[in-house]
Amino acid sequence: MTWHRTILSSLAVCLIPMTEVFSQEEPLEVASALNEEILPNYHYEYIPDFTYKEVEQRIKSMKTDMPFELNDRIFSFIQYFTVRNREYTKMVLARKDKFFPLFESTMKKHEMPVEIQYLSIIESGLDPQIRSRVGAMGLWQFMPATGRMYGMYVNSDVDDRMDPEMSTDAAAKYLKSLYRMFGNWEVALAAYNCGPGNVRKAIRRSGGKTTFWGIYNYLPRETRGYVPQFQAMLYILNHLEEHNFNLEEPTYPIEYEKIRFDRAFRMEKLAELTDICLKDLEELNPSIKNRNIPESNRSMAVRIPKNKSMFLKENLAWIGDSLGNAPTLLLASQVVPVNEAVAAVNREAVTYRVRSGDVLGKIASNHGVTVTQLKDWNHLNSNLIKVGQTLKIYSGNSSPSGTLAENSSSGSKTYTVRPGDSLWIISKKHSLTVEQIKRLNNLNSNNIKPGQKLIIG
């Protein structure tokens, strides 16, 4: 057999192309290439080994308001989330810091064990907009009927069950009521999953036992895994280093303030007027489904990034007025006369150089115009401007030919509404209040349309 191997080796050498690398001057490299085993380049994640005894000891040393003892069922879920499905645990870790401060403060307010916050991981994976196959929604997976019991309502545009604050407060109240009902937190968690009726049935069938593991065999199948999964996550998130979980890019919450606009509007319009990132508005307000706050929810508080809240508070009057100043489809009889439109277009432009801290909304407010007008006059495709940039502004306080104010035959002074106008803008131009203009013209709302004549004095 030795000669057979020798022949095969010789044939293999003959088949190797005589490149610059494999030349007769470098026999060592050839020999190395023949003997070297080529392995695929895989990236392996180190997963530490652990024993039942080690995990049991760690759990015993944990200081929690909801102590638990390890068993085979819990241990199997610990293995699942640390070995077989590490990606789910990593996803949860990336979202944890975004919601846990809210959860913890809410549990403390209701004088409940803070560990209950881990239940949301099992319910939703910390996704405020997730929907179950049976129609439960949000971080705490409320069904519509249960949501209404705790003041969370649903329509085509807004679903309060996806509001982190409202749903967390409702979950705390509901869980606390279940604890008062059964006197045991683990049983209360089971009732949260399958309903108090199924838990009472399990207690009866078990002969009157009142602990989770006492009624375990009589609970619905899904609920039998529900509490052990919660306890597994409680252990894992308190022993991340022992299982080599090192989060590189955590997601932190956006600091915000709540502001009421008391009107229906679209979030795109708010983003345009205030230069707030639309994605930030969506992230802060997950309960708004179609970027639309309808008339039925006009009084809801909207979360605004804290770094924009001061600007918005200072300019709330014109921003709020502009939010409701939607484009109007005009009839022929409502169009501004040509001579007035030409006069408006031929106004003398004011040149403005952008300074540090300027945004379009602030510039528009200072000059009595709208953001849309600024963008049209300067051919801007977005709200982004830079220091030193020159803008053309057709000031609303320019010469008489630049306004649509005139004296009527009755002696009163009137103003013809231009596209982009709002009552607030008109009031500032003519030193009046919005309410004064509404009284002079018998207006019941802030809605006005181009071509409309208003009495202003």
TrEMBL record:
Gene3D superfamilies: 1.10.530.10, LysM domain. Residues 350-393, 413-456 form the LysM domain. CDD domains: LysM, MltD-like. It holds the Pfam family SLT. Signal peptide: none annotated. Belongs to the transglycosylase Slt family. This is Lytic transglycosylase domain-containing protein.
